[in-house]
C-alpha cells in the first residue's frame, strides 16, 4: 500500500510587498522550490513542505480555517482579517509563532497637505479611503470620533484628490507615495511587520516535527540579518 507522508502547508503572498522577502527567507532556510513558475501550490523538493501562493488578504482565513498549517503575512492584514471574521462569526483564532523582522510599515491616517490638523478631533465626521476599515473603525471608536470610509484595495492615496474622500488610512513605509500625492501623515494607528502564524489546533506529530526543523532555521536567518 502506498502511504503519503503528510506535508506541512504554508501560505505566502504570491506577489506584493512581502513576497520577495518571504521567498528569500524560505530559500535561506534551505527550502528548494521553484516559485518562478505559475504553479500556485509549489512543492518543496527537499522537505515535506508545500508552499501555497495566494493573495495576502486570503492568508489569515486559510490559516484560521485550517486549510494551511502556517502562513506568512503582515500584521496589518492579519489584524484586519481577524476583526472582520469576528464580526461575521467566522473562526478568527490563530497563534503568532514568531515575528519575522521584515515588511515593517505603519498604518496611518493622512490628510491633504493644506488640511488644518489640530489633533484627532479634527478628523471627526470625515470620510477616509482605506483597505483597512476594521482597523480604522477600532481606532475611531477608541478615540471617541466618528468616521466614514470608502473601500479601496489599492492606489488609496489618489482618493482625496479626486473627491472620493477627505483623507486616507493606508500603509506608509518610506512616505514617498504620500508625498507624491500631496498628503501628510497625521496619525499612526497600527505598526506592522511580517509574522509567521499558525492554526491554533495542535499539529499532528509528523507535521510538528517538520516545523521543529524549520523554526530554528528561520530564527537563525533572522539572527544573521540583525
Ligand atoms: C503600498 C501601500 C502604500 C505604499 C507605501 O502600495 O499601500 O501606498 O506602498 O509605501 P511608501 O511609503 O514607501 O511609498 P503599493 O505600492 O503596494 O500599491 P497598491 O496600494 O496600489 O497595492
Ligand atoms: Mg498603495
Automatic annotation (TrEMBL):
A GO CC term attached to the entry: cytoplasm
Keywords, A to Z, come to: Amino-acid biosynthesis, ATP-binding, Cytoplasm, Glycosyltransferase, Histidine biosynthesis, Magnesium, Metal-binding, Nucleotide-binding, Transferase
- Please indicate if the UniProt record lists Nucleotidyltransferase as a keyword: no
Q: Give start and end of each ATP phosphoribosyltransferase catalytic domain.
A: 55-219
> Which compartments is it annotated to reside in?
Cytoplasm
Q: Which cofactor does it need?
A: Mg(2+)
Give me the reactions it catalyses.
Answer: 1-(5-phospho-beta-D-ribosyl)-ATP + diphosphate = 5-phospho-alpha-D-ribose 1-diphosphate + ATP
Picking any one GO molecular function of the record gives: ATP phosphoribosyltransferase activity
Pathway(s) it belongs to: Amino-acid biosynthesis; L-histidine biosynthesis; L-histidine from 5-phospho-alpha-D-ribose 1-diphosphate: step 1/9
Instruction: Look up the EC number in the record and give it.
Output: 2.4.2.17
Anything known on activity regulation?
A: Feedback inhibited by histidine.
User: Which Gene Ontology biological process is one annotated for this entry?
Assistant: L-histidine biosynthetic process
Signal peptide span:
none
Family the entry assigns: Belongs to the ATP phosphoribosyltransferase family. Long subfamily.
Q: Please give the function described in this protein's UniProt entry.
A: Catalyzes the condensation of ATP and 5-phosphoribose 1-diphosphate to form N'-(5'-phosphoribosyl)-ATP (PR-ATP). Has a crucial role in the pathway because the rate of histidine biosynthesis seems to be controlled primarily by regulation of HisG enzymatic activity.
The name of this protein is ATP phosphoribosyltransferase
Organism whose genome encodes this protein? Litorilituus sediminis
Q: Which gene encodes it?
A: hisG
Amino acid at each position: 500500500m502506498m502511504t503519503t507522508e503528510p506535508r506541512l502547508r504554508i501560505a505566502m503572498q504570491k506577489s506584493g510587498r512581502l513576497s520577495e522577502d518571504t521567498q528569500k527567507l524560505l530559500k535561506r532556510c534551505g527550502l528548494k522550490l521553484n516559485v518562478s513558475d505559475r504553479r500556485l501550490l509549489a512543492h518543496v523538493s527537499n522537505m515535506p513542505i508545500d508552499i501555497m501562493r495566494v493573495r495576502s488578504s486570503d492568508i489569515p482565513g486559510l490559516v484560521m480555517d485550517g486549510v494551511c498549517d502556517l502562513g506568512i503575512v503582515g500584521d496589518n492584514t492579519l489584524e484586519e482579517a481577524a476583526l472582520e471574521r469576528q464580526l461575521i462569526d467566522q473562526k478568527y483564532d490563530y497563534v503568532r509563532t514568531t515575528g519575522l523582522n521584515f515588511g515593517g510599515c505603519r498604518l496611518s491616517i493622512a490628510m491633504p497637505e493644506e488640511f488644518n490638523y489640530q489633533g484627532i478631533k479634527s478628523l471627526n465626521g470625515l470620510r477616509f479611503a482605506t483597505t483597512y476599515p476594521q482597523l480604522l473603525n477600532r481606532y475611531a471608536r477608541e478615540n471617541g470620533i466618528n468616521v466614514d470610509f470608502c473601500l479601496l484595495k489599492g492606489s488609496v492615496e489618489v482618493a482625496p484628490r479626486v473627491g472620493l474622500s477627505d483623507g486616507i488610512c493606508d500603509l506608509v513605509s518610506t512616505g514617498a507615495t504620500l508625498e507624491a500625492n500631496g498628503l501628510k501623515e497625521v496619525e499612526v494607528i497600527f505598526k506592522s511587520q511580517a509574522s509567521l502564524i499558525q492554526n491554533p489546533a495542535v499539529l499532528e506529530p509528523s507535521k510538528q516535527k517538520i516545523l521543529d526543523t524549520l523554526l530554528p532555521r528561520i530564527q537563525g536567518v533572522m539572527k544573521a540579518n540583525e
